[in-house]
Amino acid sequence: MTETPVQKPNPVLIALPVILFAALALLFWKGLFGDPQTVPSALIGKPAPEVTLPAIEGSGFPAFTSADLKGGGVSVVNVWASWCAPCREEHPLLLELAGRKDIHLYGINYKDDAENARRFLGTLGNPFSAIVADVNGRAAVDWGVYGVPETYVIDGQGIIRFKQIGPLSAEALAGPFAAEIDKAKTPLKQD
Which of 14, 49, 79, 106 has its CA 20 to 30 A from that of 118? Predict the structure, then answer.
């Protein structure tokens, strides 16, 4: 009787599941703990989505439209909600930003109750020259919103030039965000 030789397992086949698991774990780790502000936006350099939303019900605040974003000056659009704690933290900075005479500050109120939105602005102040209500969140999907707050810099032709994910900080408002507003004053070169 002849014995059949025992084949040794291929080390590559043994290591393959471990390597795949490690790669997936690294990917998930980066997704969970990475900086969300570094997530690129597909809308940079493209026209801002159409805005056809109503004003916050019963607020007396005016609404804005896409035409307002193409009015020739730089616009800043902030997506916020009364239930959003970081929105409350960044609100004093929006009031400061509203003092700039070289921009128009607009708000999109995201999935909020009109009474809560009115109370939020009544208590903390209204920095916006016009506000619309995105009650069902559809416009936020069109704008590529990951979560509130988010703030967009839009040039005079209605092109999104910058997206701030998360709340504005005093440092950003004085430095990088201000620089993005200044860059948006210069028209994009046509190819």
Answer: 49
Is residue 19 assigned to a domain? no
Instruction: Assign residue 116 the CATH number of its domain.
Output: 3.40.30.10
Domain count, the chain: 1
- Return the amino acid letter for 182: D
**DSSP state, residue 38:** G
> Taking the CB of residue 44, how many other CB atoms lie within 10 A of it?
14
Note the pLDDT of residue 16. 73
Spatial separation of the C-alpha atoms in residues 147 and 165, rounded to whole Å: 8
Q: What is the pLDDT of residue 35?
A: 44
How many Cβ atoms sit within 10 Å of the Cβ of residue 126? Answer: 18
Q: Within the chain, which residues score under 50 in pLDDT? A: 34-38
SS3 102: coil
Radius of gyration over alpha carbons of the chain, in Å? Answer: 24
